[in-house]
Design brief:
- It is a single chain.
- This protein has about 675 residues and is α/β, with parallel strands linked by helices.
- About 45% of the residues lie in helices and about 10% in strands.
- It has helices spanning about 30-35, 175-185, 190-195, 200-215, 225-245, 255-270, 270-305, 310-330, 335-350, 355, 360-370, 380, 390-405, 415-425, 430, 435-450, 455-470, 475-500, 505-515, 525-540; strands spanning about 555-565, 570-575, 580-585, 595, 615-620, 625-630, 640-650, 655-660, 665.
- The strands form three sheets. It has a four-stranded antiparallel beta sheet, covered by helices on one side. The chain has a three-stranded mixed beta sheet with strand order 5-1-8, with no helix packed on it.
- A hairpin with a 3-residue loop joins strand 2 (about 570-575) and strand 3.
- Helix 2 (about 175-185) packs across helix 6, helix 4 (about 200-215) packs antiparallel against helix 5 and helix 13 (about 390-405) runs antiparallel to helix 14 (about 415-425).
- The longest helix has about 35 residues, at about 270-305.
- It is rod-shaped.
- About 30% of the residues are buried.
C-alpha cells in the first residue's frame, strides 16, 4: 500500500471508510461508543491516511484510556510514515466534554467536522468530539515517540524516525577498571583497545615507540633520566585514565574474556618489567664491552712500548696503568676487571724482560718503575709484585755500575748506579760487593798499563778515579789511593809508549802533564827529559830514535858555552847522553844576518864582537852525539816560533862554543 503525501489533509471522521453507513447517534455517550467498539474487528486502514510509524523497541507502551477501556490491538507492521495532526478537544476522564453538564450531548455542533483521525488509530472508534487539539498521544498505545517528545500535537520531522536516547552508564566495576588501567600500564595501550579508544591506543604506541628509538641500541650511558621520568608519568596517566573510563564502561567482549582480562593485565605487566630487565642486561653487556675495549686499548699501549727505550715508552705505560687501576678497582667485578691481575703480571714480565736477558743497565729504569708502583697504584691490586723487584733491581744496579767502571762514555755512569744501589739497598749483599769490585777494576787497569795499550788503560783509570771520588769516602779511601797510584804509573807508561810509537806531539803533552801532576814522583825528571826529546824529535826525527836515559851517565863532562847573537830571547833544547833546556836573554844590539845566498856564499861571522855583548849560558855535557833545537821568541823583526835544529858531537877533552843567530831571507 502506498503512503499519502505528507501534505494530505485530514478527512472528517464521518467520511472515513470502515464505519457504518449511517452515522452514529450523536447523543450516544463515549462509554457507549467504546462498548460498541469492543469485540469488533479493526477496520481496514484508510488509504488516504498515512500509516503510523513503527515504534522502536525502546519506546514505552502507553496505557489505555483513563476510563479503563482496554487498548486496541497494535496494527500490523507498516513502513514508517509522517504522522498527521489531530485536532479536537482533549479527552476527559469521564468521557464528557469539559464545561458541559452531565447528560448534555457531546460532540461538535451540527455541520461542523468531527476532526482528523489520529495517526495510527487503527480500528479504534472515531472520536467525534469537538474542541482543542488533544493532549494525549497521537498514535495508538505502544507506538509513537515517548511522552513529552516534541511540541504538543507534533511528531518527529517528516522523513525521520525517532532517535534513541543515550544509553545510561552501567554499574561501577572496579575489577574491570583495574584491568584496563593495568593493561594501559603495560605501555601497549591494550586497555584503550578494549574501550575502542583508538586515539589513546595510538598515543601509547607512539610513546612506547619513541622510548624504544631513544633507548635502542643499549649503550653505556643508557636512557636519559628525563625521558624515563616522562615515560613513567605518561604510563601512570594513561593507567589512571583507563581506570576512569573502564569503571562503568560496557565492553563488547565475552564473559570468559572478561574473567581473563585482569589476570592478563597482571601478566602483561611483565612486558615493561621484562623490557627493563632486558634493557638492563643489554646495557650491562654494553658496559662490559666498553670496559673490555678500554682493557684492549691499554694492552695495545703496553705492547707498543716493546723495543723502545723506557724513557720514551713510559708515558704509554703510565696511561695503561691508569686504565688497569680503574678497571681493577672501580670495575673489579666486571669481565675486564677480572682480567686486570693477569694483565699486571704480563706488564711486569714485559718490563722485566731486559733483566731476564741480563741487559742490566737497560733493566734498571723499568725495574725502578715497577718497584715504585706501590706508591702510585692500589696496593691491594698490586699485591706482592713490587717487592719481587727488589732483588732484580739491586743486582741490575750492581752489575750496571761495576760494568761501567772505567768506561768514559758509560750511560749511566758507574757512580750513578752504585750510589743508587748503596742508597736504596744498603744492607743488600750486592751493596757489600761494590768496594771490592772497584779495587779489582783498578788492579786490572793497573796491570794493563804494562801491556800494549797503556794509554787506554790510563784513560779508564782516570774514569774510575772520577767514579770513586763520587762514592762515599770512608768506604772507598783505599780504592782512591790505589787508583791514583795506578794513574801515575799509567801516565808515564802512556808517554813512553807514545814516544816509541813516534807520536811525539802526544808524548810531549803526556809527559809534560805527568811532570805537573806528579812533581814529587821519582819519574818526574825522566818524564821531563822525554818531553824535551820528543819536542826535538818532532822537528828532527832522528832525535827520537831512543828514549833519553832516565839518569845521566857518569864520567867527565865537556864545557859548551852558548851565546845569543840575535834579536829576541831564545830557548835551546838538547838531547843526547843527557837532555835538557836553557833560555838565553835577548841581545839588544844584535840583528839578523843576511842569508849567505845573497852574499855570494860568504861565511857569516857571528858572535865576533866583544863577548860581553852576547848573552851566554854554559852547558856541561858528557861526551856523545847531541841534537839541538833553538826556539826564538818573537820580536819586531822575527815571529815567535822560529826554530832551528842542529847536531853536535861532544868529545872528551874539548870545550865548545855555540853561537845562536838569525838569518834573513833577503
Amino acid at each position: 500500500m502506498g503512503e499519502e503525501p505528507n501534505d494530505a489533509r485530514p478527512e472528517p471522521a464521518d467520511r472515513i471508510p470502515g464505519e457504518d453507513a449511517s452515522h452514529q447517534n450523536q447523543n450516544q455517550s463515549p462509554q457507549q461508543g467504546q462498548a460498541q467498539g469492543q469485540g469488533r474487528n479493526p477496520a481496514p486502514p484508510d488509504p488516504r491516511v498515512a500509516p503510523s510509524p513503527e515504534a522502536p523497541p525502546w519506546a514505552p507502551v502507553r496505557p489505555a484510556a483513563a476510563s479503563g477501556t482496554p487498548a486496541a490491538p497494535p496494527p500490523p507492521e507498516r513502513p514508517p510514515a509522517t504522522p498527521t495532526l489531530a485536532f479536537g478537544p482533549p479527552p476527559q476522564a469521564s468521557g464528557q466534554p469539559a464545561g458541559q453538564p452531565s447528560g448534555q450531548q457531546s460532540g461538535p455542533p451540527p455541520g461542523e467536522p468531527s476532526g482528523a483521525v489520529p495517526v495510527g488509530a487503527g480500528a479504534a472508534a472515531p472520536d467525534h468530539s469537538y474542541g482543542y487539539p488533544r493532549s494525549g498521544p497521537a498514535t495508538a498505545p505502544g507506538y509513537g515517540p515517548p511522552p513529552g517528545y516534541g511540541p504538543p500535537g507534533y511528531g518527529p520531522p517528516p522523513g525521520y524516525g525517532a532517535q534513541p536516547p543515550a544509553q545510561p552508564p552501567g554499574p561501577a566495576n572496579p575489577a574491570q577498571a583495574a584491568a584496563i588501567g593495568l593493561l594501559n600500564l603495560s605501555g601497549l595501550g591494550l586497555g584503550y583497545v578494549l574501550l575502542r579508544n583508538w586515539i589513546g591506543a595510538v598515543l601509547c604506541w607512539l610513546a612506547t615507540a619513541a622510548l624504544l628509538v631513544v633507548a635502542l641500541p643499549a649503550d653505556v650511558d643508557g636512557v636519559p633520566v628525563g625521558v624515563l621520568v616522562g615515560y613513567g608519568v605518561f604510563l601512570l596517566a594513561v593507567a589512571a585514565d583507563g581506570f576512569r573510563r573502564g569503571l562503568r564502561a560496557t565492553l563488547r567482549i565475552g564473559a570468559a574474556f572478561r574473567r581473563l582480562a585482569l589476570p592478563l593485565a597482571l601478566v602483561l605487566l611483565a612486558v615493561p618489567a621484562g623490557g627493563s630487565l632486558a634493557y638492563g642486561a643489554a646495557r650491562d653487556e654494553a658496559k662490559e664491552q666498553a670496559l673490555l675495549a678500554r682493557l684492549t686499548t691499554a694492552d695495545e699501549r703496553v705492547k707498543s712500548g716493546q723495543g723502545l727505550l723506557f724513557e720514551r715508552a713510559e708515558p704509554l705505560y703510565r696511561l695503561a696503568l691508569a686504565t688497569y687501576q680503574d678497571l681493577g678497582t672501580k670495575h673489579a667485578g666486571s669481565r675486564a676487571g677480572k682480567l686486570v691481575p693477569a694483565r699486571l703480571d704480563a706488564y711486569y714480565e714485559q718490563l722485566s724482560a731486559p733483566y731476564a736477558k741480563k741487559d742490566y743497565c737497560k733493566a734498571v729504569a723499568p725495574l725502578t718503575h715497577l718497584r715504585g708502583l706501590s706508591g702510585a697504584v692500589d696496593k691491594d691490586l698490586l699485591g706482592t709484585r713490587p717487592a719481587k723487584t727488589d732483588e732484580p733491581l739491586a743486582e741490575s744496579l750492581y752489575e750496571c755500575g761495576t760494568g761501567a767502571l772505567g768506561v768514559q762514555a758509560a750511560d749511566p755512569p758507574a757512580e750513578k748506579s752504585l750510589n743508587a744501589l748503596l742508597d736504596t739497598f744498603p744492607e743488600s749483599a750486592h751493596a757489600t760487593r761494590v768496594e771490592p769490585a772497584v779495587r779489582a777494576a783498578v788492579k786490572t787497569r793497573s796491570t794493563a798499563v804494562d801491556g800494549a795499550a797503556p794509554c787506554e788503560a790510563v784513560v779508564e783509570l782516570r774514569t774510575i778515579r772520577t767514579s770513586v771520588g763520587a762514592l762515599p769516602g770512608a768506604t772507598f779511601d783505599a780504592a782512591a789511593r790505589e787508583t791514583s797510584t795506578a794513574i801515575e804509573k799509567g801516565d808515564f807508561a802512556c808517554g813512553t809508549s807514545q814516544f816509541r810509537n813516534k807520536d811525539f806531539d802526544d808524548a810531549v803533552t803526556t809527559m809534560t802533564q805527568f811532570a805537573k801532576d806528579h812533581p814529587s814522583s821519582p819519574k818526574a825528571a825522566h818524564a821531563r827529559s822525554i818531553a824535551i826529546a820528543a819536542e826535538i824529535a818532532d822537528e828532527e826525527a832522528e832525535a827520537g830514535k831512543a828514549l833519553p836515559p832516565a839518569k845521566a851517565p857518569g864520567g867527565s863532562r865537556m864545557v859548551m858555552v852558548v851565546s845569543n847573537d840575535g834579536p829576541g830571547s831564545v830557548e835551546l833544547l838538547y838531547t843526547g847522553p843527557t837532555t835538557g833546556r836553557i833560555t838565553l836573554n835577548a841581545c839588544a844590539t844584535c840583528t839578523k844576518y843576511p842569508n849567505p845566498i845573497f852574499q855570494g856564499s860568504k861565511k857569516i861571522k857571528a858572535c865576533t864582537g866583544p863577548s860581553s855583548k852576547y848573552p851566554k849560558a854554559t852547558l856541561l855535557l858528557p861526551a856523545g852525539n847531541y841534537h839541538f833545537l833553538q826556539k826564538r821568541a818573537g820580536t819586531g823583526t822575527s815571529s815567535a816560533g822560529d826554530t832551528k835544529t842542529s847536531k853536535a858531537k861532544i868529545e872528551p877533552g874539548y870545550s865548545y862554543t855555540n853561537c845562536l843567530y838569525v838569518t834573513s831571507g833577503f
